[in-house]
Structures are given as C-alpha cells and as structure tokens.
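Support request, priority: normal
Reporter: lab tech (M.K.)
Component: structure prediction queue

Hi team, I submitted a job for histidine kinase from Halovenus aranensis yesterday, and the status page still shows it as pending. I've pasted the exact input below so you can check whether something in the sequence is tripping the parser. The sequence length should be 554 residues. Please let me know if I need to resubmit or if it's stuck on your end.
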Amino acid sequence: MERNEQAESERVDSQLDSERLEQLHRATTALYASDSIEESACQTVSTATEILGFDGCLIAKADRESEMFEVVAVERADDLEPGDRPLGIDEGIVGAAFSADESRIDNDITEMREAAQNDGQVKSVLTVPVGGWGAFQAIGEQTGAFDQEDRRLVELLVAPLATTIERIQRETTLEQRTAALERQNEQIEAVHAVSTAMKLTTEKDDIYDLFVETVEQVLDIAICTLDERVGDVLKTRAVGSTMNLEDFYTETPLDQSGSLAVESYDRGETVVVDDLNQTKYRAASSDYQSVISVPLGKWGIFQAATRERDAFDETDRQIIELLADSAEAAIERIERQKELQRRARKLEAQNERLDQFASRLSHEMRNPLSVLEARLSLARDTGDAEHFEHMERSIQRMSRLIDDTLALAREGSAEVMVEPVRLDRLVTECWQHIRTPNTELVVDTEATVRADTDRLHQLLANLLRNAVEHTGNGVTVTVGSFEEGFFIEDDGSGIPPSDREAVLTSGTTNLAHGTGLGLAVVRRVVEDHGWSLLVTESESGGARFEIRDVAVDT
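Reply from support: The job had stalled in the queue. We restarted it manually and it finished. Here are the results:
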C-alpha cells in the first residue's frame, strides 16, 4: 500500500514538473519575441511567481553610470517598486552574485551581513545574474525556501531573458547609430548648402550671420557668438536669435587674460570645455557650463555655449569646424575680390592721371621750349651771352617739370625709406640751386626729422622755389620747426584763404599763387609720409606751409 502511494506521489510530481516545464517553455518563447526590456522583465517575474510559486521576486539592472541597482520589475515585494535604487552594484547578496557571475541560494539570511536592508520578513533568497545586464532575485518568507531544482528552473527562465535583453540592446544600438548617421548626413548636407551659399556672398557680415544661423538650426544651439578681429580686439558681429548683443562682450582685447576666445584664436585651435566651473576662463554668463571655441583662421572666432556639462561631442566639433573652413575660404575670397577691385580702381586712376600729366607736361613744355628756340635763334644771330642764361633757365624749368610730373605719376609706387635727416642742412643744400639775387634764406632750426631724404628734398625744393618764383626779388624765406613738425614761410603777399586748398592740386597755374605741379608734389610727399599739411599765413602776411605730425627731434 505504501509503495503504491509513493509511486502515485512520484507520478503526480513528475506530471507537475512536466506541466511547469511546458509553461516555462511557453513563457520563454514569449520572452524571445519581446521588443521591450521592461516588458520582458515583467513577464519573467510574473512567470516566477505564478508558475514556480515563489513568494516574491524582482529584477534589477546594474546602472554603470550611477553604480547602483535599479529595480525594473517586481512581484509581491511591497517595499520596492520600479525605479527604486536600493543597493550599489557591489553591495548585498545580489551584488556578490552579480560580481561573481554565479547563481546562489541563501536559505537563511536572517543573520547574514550581506543581507542589506532586510526587515526580517525575508528569510531566503535565490539570486541569478542576468548576463552582464543585471540580476534576478526570488525571495522566500521561510528559511530553506529554495532547492537546486528551483535554481535550475530559474536559470532556465533567466537565460532567454538575458538573450532577449542582449538582442534588444543590439537593436537599440543599431537604431541609434542609424539615426545618428542619418542625422549626421542631414547636417553635412545642410553645411554643404550653407557653404555653397557662402560662396555667393559679397559681404563678410552675411557670412557671419549664415554661420550663426546654421549652428543654431543644425545643432540646435541657441547660445552662440561670432567675433571678428578688428585691429587689436575681437569684435562681436553676430549672435544667436535668442540673444541680445548688448548683453555680451562686444569687444575683447587680444591681450586680455582669462579669455577662452583670445586663447583659442591665438592658438588657432578648437577648444572644447566640458565644465567651465573647473577652468580659469570667464564666461559671459554664470549659467554657461560647456563651451566650444572654433577659430575662423585669422579672421575671427566662433563660440557656442550650453547650460549643461559635457554638451559637445565630436560630431558637433566636426560640423562647426566644417562651417569655419567654409567661412574662412569665403572671407578670403571676398577680401581678394575687394583687393582686386581696389587695384583696378587704383590702376584706372593712375592711367587717368598719366593722361592728365602727359597733357599737362605737353602744355607746360611749350612755353620754355618756345623761349629756348627764340633765344637760340638770337644767340646765333648776335652771339650775346645773355641769351644762353635764358636758355639755361628754360632748360632748368623743363627739367623741373619732368621731375614733378614723374613724382606725381609714381603715386604709391615709390617706397618711403625713413631715416634721421638734419633739416637745416637739407634746406641749405636745396637753397643753393634756387636762390636768386636779392632773396634771403633764414634757417631757424636745428631739428632732426625722420623722413625719406630724397622725398623730403623734393618737398623743400618745391616750397622754396614757390616762395622765390611767386614773391619776386627781395623775398625772405624762413624755415623753422615746432613741436608737431616744421614750416616754410615767406614775407610776400600770401595766398587768399579761398585759394589755399586749390593751390595743392595739380594744374592750378591760373591762380595767382598756383605753381602747376610743384605744390601737388608737396602734398604727395606729405601723404606718403603720413604727415598733414596746412596752408596758412605768416606773421608778415606771406604764405606759410606747415608740415605737421612729423617726428621731430629738436
């Protein structure tokens, strides 16, 4: 009789095991088809309690970033719910099993130090790692609640869960990579379109605006500025659409310390700061945490900021650097075009000036040539030496006309070679070729000026000759210096205020004190040196020419 009862019990147990295995098979088949980790975890804990008959159980994932276990699914454990983080990944029984990657049965945890946060209701636990993702744990309210068969069945249940989680993670990673590649392609296409648009722009400000707008739209970064180098400062030219230019640094000196923009510009390298609070750099706003700074060659610097740390990745950097390269190329193209236009205008002006000079020279040469021809004829007829003196003066005048014309025709082509020049010595040298009877030179200076000796000689000779030729016999010419420069003045009748600007223009021989080309040469020498020229009146009422902004050593 006892044998029959034992056989019947074994038959029933075998039938139950077979049914449970069949139920587990159906449950694991459903797990393999799941597309959600959370859904799979919930199916697993539900199967463990309903089919395997556990008092309760949970599944937690190991969060590597926080180094905590986070509950994903729980069944019949009232003190826990999804989202809870009860333990570190190296704490408690579950932490030990996970770290060792081994299942374990603990049938009496009431006195175990590893049994963290146990309120006494849980007496036994069965812990099974879920791959490298997390862990499953069944709880028993009695000691000795679990045996090796329970362990085997849970491992059978958890194995497809681990496989499913690994598959879902791979699929998620692949989807993320695909989405990232698609987004990156879209970004590159957008940058390419903007780069093409930059090639058609004619103003640098348009390039700056395009740059900022593109970063804002493509990378979804609203806090950004673009500064252009202007002299010794970085000057803000464009800002994001949500920003007010007045709220930010509009000028940053290139020698300013603690400036990320200055440092990045000087180095010519992109600089990414993940946490401004951990650096020496000063931010325009204390809210800014992450910053990227990208130079546009020698032209300027672009910066973007966020209110989150570690905001910029390698893709952001590459996109902005691509934009910076395109902007730099477009700016250089605009500058080259402007330089070509400047050269074309200059060449056109030079050609026009040469035509004028040729016409002017032809006109001015007629008079001394006529005098020369007449005097030559008289000299042949009479042999009087006086005619030779007139001929010599005509030749000298033609020589001066040629020199003055060439001086003006070479505008901008002659390099100014500056050196210290004794003003009194050069004035005296010029006077030797200009003085006439009954004229007097007073040199009231021992100053040394920094100038091109040959060009300064032209200036002095023309001003001295102007005083002698347009004042007549008995003129006294005075050359002196003052703190800002030097002057040449005479005691003649002076130049009317209405004519003082006109006398400095070539071709003003119709004016009472016009000299044709001579004073135009004076103005050209002054401009080439970076000086300034003032035509005024001397104390005696004569003409006074002041050359200012000259480096004078008295």
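Residues 11-172 form a domain with the Beta-Lactamase fold (CATH 3.30.450.40). The chain has a mean pLDDT of 83. Let us know if anything else looks off. Ticket resolved.
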